[in-house]
Amino acid sequence: MKNINAEGHAVVVGASLAGLRGAEALRRAGFAGRLTLIGDEPDRPYDRPPLSKAVLTGDIAPEATTLPNLHALDAEWRLGVAAIGLDREAREVRLADGATLSYDRLLIATGSRARPWSNPTEAGLAGVHTLRGRGDAAALRRALAAGPKRVLIIGAGFIGCEVAASCRALECAVTLIDPGPAPLARILGQPVGEIVAALHRALGVDLRSRTKVARLIGNETGQVVRANLDDGSEVETDLVVVALGAVRNTEWLSGSGLDAGPGGVVCDEAGYALDTEGRPDGAIAAAGDVARFPHPLYDGRPVSLEHWGHAVAQGEHAGRLLAGAATGAAYAEMPAFWSSQGGVTIKSVGLTEGADAMVFAQGSPKEGRFVVVYGAKGRCIAALSFDSGRWLPAYAELIAAHAPFPPIRVGVDLHGLAVLQPGFPEEWTSS
Amino acid sequence: MPDLPPPPDGSPLRVTVDLNRCQAYAQCCYAAPEHFVLHGREALFYDPAPSASDRLSIERARVSCPVQAIRVEDPERQGR
User: Fold this and answer.
1) What ipTM did this prediction achieve?
2) Does residue A208 share a domain with residue A277?
3) Which of B1, B16, B45 is opposite residue A76, by nearest beta carbon?
4) Which domain holds residue A195?
5) Which of A59, A76, A390 is facing B23, going by the closest CB pair?
6) Which domains can be identified in chain B, with CATH numbers?
7) Is A182 found in the same domain as A107?
8) Whether the predicted pLDDT of A322 surpasses 50
9) What DSSP designation does A396 have?
10) Which spans in A275-374 are helix H?
11) pLDDT tens per residue, range A414-430
12) Do the chains contact at A309 and B20, CB–CB below 8 Å?
């Protein structure tokens, strides 16, 4: 039998953060065979978080975001060519240029893409942007540097909020539109969403919550000039950013027999991809945005996470797994993310989904610095900080330990914590 | 396509900071003020592609980080 680590071929599909860190982990774990990375973009792996912040403000150039390579890869790169099919019986990946690559080990790290505006004609108007890749950021930066009259941002999730703050840093007029009661309320709940709303209003953002864009209108040259809103009003705009979340890149796996779809590539606890019968394929793992896996911290509930730190940790886990060097323990990294908007840093650990209560555990919104802890069924499940990130590791420990909620606070000068309703605006859909 | 060619001489260092780990102790801002700066209380902005001639100050920033959040690729000394 072939010694995979000596003579095998490991193929990584997806040349972004998870794929790069996965490839490095394969090498670190002793994989000495042939290694190929496939990426549909022409660039070497680059870092995405700056694309909605320092790249838009012009503080760093888009091409400066190339990621450091932290371990010698000795890899073959197939960049600018997408994988379009997977044949698990033949153990082959099919590429858009007609080539096929056989593999012994396969890491699926194809990530996600920006969800486009629902009307393709309107989405095709000049001045209508999405933001996901380096090219998107470069195009949006050029448009912002040209001095738009008003930027309209559709969707007040993290990307929409960060873009709004970056636009205000450039002193562009901005309207931010979202159907929810407050920005980020779907993830952080309404009380925190209201604080985010106040932050953006203070930055000078024209925030319209509980509002949807009905139509984008172009002029005779096909340039967007206006948006009609569902409340009957209009916004004159020459630059629209559609920030409606992401779509996982799983279409190329259709027909492969893997359990993959809009929810992601379904994996088992170890990280192996499952087929449609629920059997793990021991040659295939998935990592990053595209992977859907049972999280041990949350009773094995299937989750897929679009976090930077998750792409790193799960990429590394998958690399070790495919090199036969995993410890056998389930992947159980504590979810964590950060965002910075208008000079404020928002950080989070754990997952808020399913929270039935929350407390302001430290600080206060008035000071602009605080920590919120979210609870479900009497246990701590997530914590969030505004400019108080140093406290989060302590709360991460509580979450990992399934500690009682509200968190116990001892001290004669401390009054009890007021337990609030998180007020998520809509039923959680499985995400 | 073979391995990408090695970066040409004078190509920049590559820096990332794990901003989940970063706790805004700002030691990097003292060690390499041209490349690391805090916006507000704890939003760290950094130069992901500093010039190779700034190797020394970047290295100082990397080792002075109390939570070891800074990772650097140096084309001349790969594998850190």
Assistant:
1) 0.90
2) no
3) B1
4) 120-244
5) A390
6) 14-73 (3.30.70.20)
7) no
8) yes
9) H
10) 308-322
11) 567 888 899 887 654 43
12) yes
